[in-house]
Write a structure and sequence with these properties.
The structure holds 2 protein chains of 2 kinds. By secondary structure, chain A is mainly alpha-helical. Chain A has helices spanning about 15, 25-45, 45-70, 80-95, 105-120, 130-150, 175-185, 190-215, 215-225, 230-235, 240-265, 275-290, 295-320, 325-345, 350-365; strands at about 165, 270. Chain A has a domain at about 45-275. Chain B is an alpha/beta fold. Chain B has helices at about 50-55, 80-85, 105-110, 120-125, 130-145, 160-175, 190-210, 220-225, 245-250, 250-260; strands at about 10-20, 25-35, 40-45, 65-70, 75, 90, 180-185, 210-215, 230-235, 235-240. In chain B, a hairpin with a 2-residue loop joins strand 9 and strand 10. Classes of the chains: A mainly alpha, B alpha/beta.
Chain lengths: ~375, ~260
Amino acid sequence: MYYRETGQIVRSYVKDRSMVPLREDRWIMAVFLAFMFLVVPFIGNDYWFSAILIPMMVLSIASLGLNIASGYTGQLSLGSAGFMSFGAFTAYNFLLRVEWMNIWLAFLAAGIVAGLMGIVFGLPSLRIKGFYLLVSTLCAQFFHEWLFNAYPWFLNYASSGVVHLPYFHYRFLPFQDQIFDMLGLAKEYNAYVWRYLITLIVTVLLALAAKNMVRSSTGRNWMAVRDMDIAAKVIGIPVGKTKLNAFFVSCFYCGVAGAMYSYCYIGNLDFMIYDLRRSFLVMFMIILGGLGSILGSFLGAIFVYGWPIFVTRFGDAVFGGGYLDTAFVENNSKIVVGTIIVVLLIYQPLGFAGLWNSVKHRLRIWPFRT
Amino acid sequence: MANGANGKVPHMVIEGIDLSFGGAKAITDISFTVYKGEICAVIGPNGAGKSSMLNVINGVYTPQQGTITYEGKKFAKMKSHSAAVMGIGRTFQNIALFSGMTTVENIMTGRNLMMKSTFIENALGVGRSRREELEHREAVEEIIEFLGLQSIRKDHVSSLSYGLQKRVELGRALAAEPKMLLLDEPIAGMNLDEKLDMACFIQEINRNRGTTIVLIEHDMGVVMDISDHVVVMDYGKKIGDGTPNEIKNNKDVIDAYLGVSHDN
């Protein structure tokens, strides 16, 4: 209906491996990104930034990370919250202790440190698969809780176990003070609009990088290991190296997501929030969104995070404020997410992304049918 | 062509291979030579150890005894990765494609050893990564054209018919530009047209690219037609080795195929 593919002829391999091959999709993407970058910062309010947009993007990156290990490479992992925690603590300690550090470099460092931890905790994948690997990745979860509990240095000896992240950690521009002075802006570097823009930029960059990886030899090697590791070995793909590479990249994403979770979303540093529940949540996101799909990582995160909010808002709108209590919303979202997981596993193992692909296929050939 | 003693160069010499799984002997003292540029068929009844033999050659199984001399280098055990690096390609009896990928992606994986860009370069998607991707795509398209896979290049391989999947798998092996191709029952389970196509592909690969081919096959008509050299196995032992004509008249082979009792 929307798509008009006649005349969109691919004449070169460059065009053929284009990231967004259809003209209509390019339009949607361009408009959407322009809206997110140029309009939302002006019309958004703190509620939308802090409770909806930022956490959705941060969790999307975490689920994208898990999707790289589990969806693309077939290495199940339950340690994602642990790697997020490593990332958050790395970013904090770099910003705290290194004079010239800025938030971009801190996020990069968070990713690298979490990625290296990922290689360590990914080592069992060389020998074991499936559920056994799932259990061994739990180590990351328990290790971070022990580490940050046992060594308060990481928390800068905060007595409460929670650190409030100071505004001057949010250094995202060169000569930021001078620029803010010049423009006459208040130096609230941790204002939600700045956090939103930081999150948006990182999210877009990481999504692009992921897309680039999965359509190159790196991604093909991951998927080859996932689909048939013997055949992968026989055609010369180094299976062990590929698995560790996937763990590194996956945990890099989780680490950056963790740093953003602390800095951009909650504004505190606290290892207790990176608990096992969060790992499960990220796993539900990729199961619902679609294993082995970048779009799916986003859809899953948006749905799992957004559903309880939607129910509350919808309930408030229909029944008047305060009618639905929090327990109801929480239980409702558990029931709905659980049911949808079961239904999707049976009818659409590729999740929302698979669902969207079949809808899109219908749209592309409309008015004909398959 | 003759058995190869007259002036042909050995590509691979297999000597005294013994392979057992626990107490079960799969292969007993097998020796044969594959010459450069020939089509060598390994035949034998089911369970004769043919597929195990291929698995030994490219390092999926490790034999207890014996050596493989590949292009003059002697190995007590082959490693899958180094076999691939040395130019041994392989297809499997029960298709081992990467089911979550498209035809073109599957064939592209065949060229992974030639693609040097790191994952960081790939993430940025510029420079070497982009160049390699386009270069190898061109090589892959040649294979797609050769095997007639144009119409399904963007299809997921899991949606393809058996015959086409076999072809894609051949394409993946071919993409690595192998010096030796091991084909495990390339035409089994196909209809007549598909069989003829596949036999033509195999012969063309052998003639035009000079690829040495070792294949396992049950279809005697095709085997006798296209191969230069036939090795016959039964119960893990070699019972015949020679040109198709010699094999046709070999008493042990006739016995094995017609089912003469083994203890007479």
